[in-house]
């Protein structure tokens, strides 16, 4: 089974990259950084290196090993389009998503210019499918709103916004060609407050453009106390997209090993596999065979 998560709008997380650096006000209280830094220096822990950016090729084939179709948040602990992640590595991750197409992938970034450039270039092959949802974070007007225009300038079939943490009133938001909006307030120590009026404005925009609205949380220091109801209602709307059936484990194993052979033939990624030590696929297969006998 995929790595379960408490994030309300997804089923599982997949992190073939770990770590990141801050880029805009929405990053101030980054939950991923706070989590990762707790384990800096803990020998053998996945976050032994804290929040330093690292490629994790041993994770790349994980989606083939999960035994049920899942909604997968890609790089919940990083940003796939960070400048230190090589183009070739991003392309291979996206190839995995294209091949393991029985899952639905949610790719969220604050590096929207690189997203725009790649979806119009080397990642165009992954834009006409409905099982990869491409999204940008929007925390305010200055940094967040331009990202929406970058996303709109891509040929992605499914485009979404994560308006979290919402830091100010965005007033009117043009949601043309946007398929989903998630809204949430910041949570944890030092959480910046979010006003109800700002959330209601976004709900109005969603209704105007007929875009599904997902209200994740009010946030605050103790988010359990503030909950996730808006005017007495829970908003758990998603875009409707068809799902492919999951193939049996023999087919999944074959797909994964064919991909691994292709990746290993890629000269530009030799340094990645070198760092992985043994074969990433065989390591996953061995790991999974202890937990899930299917792959
Ligand atoms: S872009 Fe995302 S993962 Fe990276 S520092 Fe900002 S909030 Fe954290």
- C-alpha Rg (nearest Å): 19 Å
Strand tally, please? 12
Query: Mind summarizing the main beta sheet?
Result: 8 strands, mixed
Calculate the terminal CA-CA distance, rounded to whole Å.
Answer: 11 Å
Structural class: alpha/beta
Which percent bin holds the helix content? Answer: 25-40%
Secondary structure tally, helices? 10
Q: How much strand?
A: 15-25%
Overall body shape:
globular
Q: How confident overall, as mean pLDDT?
A: 92
| Strand order across the largest sheet | 1-2-5-6-7-8-9-10
What is the succession of H and E elements? EEEHEHEHEHEHEEHEHEEHHH
Bound chemical compounds: iron/sulfur cluster
Question: Which stretches are low in confidence, meaning pLDDT under 50 for 5 or more residues running?
Answer: 283-295
Number of domains: 1
What does this protein look like?
- It is built from ten helices and twelve strands.
- By secondary structure, the chain is α/β, with parallel strands linked by helices.
- It has one domain.
- An eight-stranded mixed beta sheet has the order 1-2-5-6-7-8-9-10. Strands 3-4 form a two-stranded antiparallel sheet.
- Helix 5 (144-152) links the parallel strand 7 and strand 8 (158-163).
- Helix 3 (87-99) packs antiparallel against helix 8 (249-264) and helix 4 runs parallel beside helix 5.
- The N and C termini lie close together (11 Å).
- The model is unreliable at 283-295 (pLDDT under 50).
- The site of iron/sulfur cluster (SF4) has 11 residues, from helix 1.
- Iron/sulfur cluster binds at residues 20, 22-23, 26-27, 30, 32-33, 78-79, 110.
């Amino acid at each position: 089974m995929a790595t379960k998560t408490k994030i309300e709008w997804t089923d599982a997380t997949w992190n073939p990259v770990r770590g990141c650096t801050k880029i805009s006000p929405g990053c101030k209280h980054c939950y991923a950084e706070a989590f990762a830094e707790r384990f800096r220096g803990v020998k053998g822990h996945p976050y032994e290196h804290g929040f330093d950016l690292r490629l994790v090729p041993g994770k790349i084939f994980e989606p083939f090993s999960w035994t049920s179709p899942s909604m997968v948040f890609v790089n919940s602990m990083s940003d796939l389009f960070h400048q230190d992640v090589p183009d070739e590595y991003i392309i291979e991750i996206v190839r995995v998503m294209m091949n393991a197409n029985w899952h639905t992938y949610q790719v969220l970034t604050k590096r929207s210019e690189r997203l725009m450039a790649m979806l119009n270039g080397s990642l165009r092959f992954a834009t006409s499918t409905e099982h990869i949802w491409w999204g940008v974070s929007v925390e305010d007007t200055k940094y967040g709103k331009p990202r929406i225009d970058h996303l709109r300038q891509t040929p992605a079939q499914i485009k979404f916004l994560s308006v979290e943490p919402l830091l100010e009133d965005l007033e009117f938001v043009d949601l043309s060609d946007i398929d989903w909006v998630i809204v949430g307030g910041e949570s944890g120590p030092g959480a910046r407050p979010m006003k109800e009026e700002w959330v209601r404005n976004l709900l109005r925009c969603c209704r105007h453009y007929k875009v599904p609205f997902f209200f994740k949380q009010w946030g605050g220091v103790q988010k359990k106390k503030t909950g996730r109801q808006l005017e007495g209602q829970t908003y758990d709307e998603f875009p409707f997209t068809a799902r492919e059936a999951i193939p049996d484990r023999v087919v999944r194993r074959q797909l994964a090993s064919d991909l691994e052979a292709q990746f290993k033939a890629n000269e530009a990624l030799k340094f990645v596999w070198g760092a992985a030590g043994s074969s990433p696929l065989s390591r996953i297969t061995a790991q999974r065979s202890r937990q899930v006998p299917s792959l």
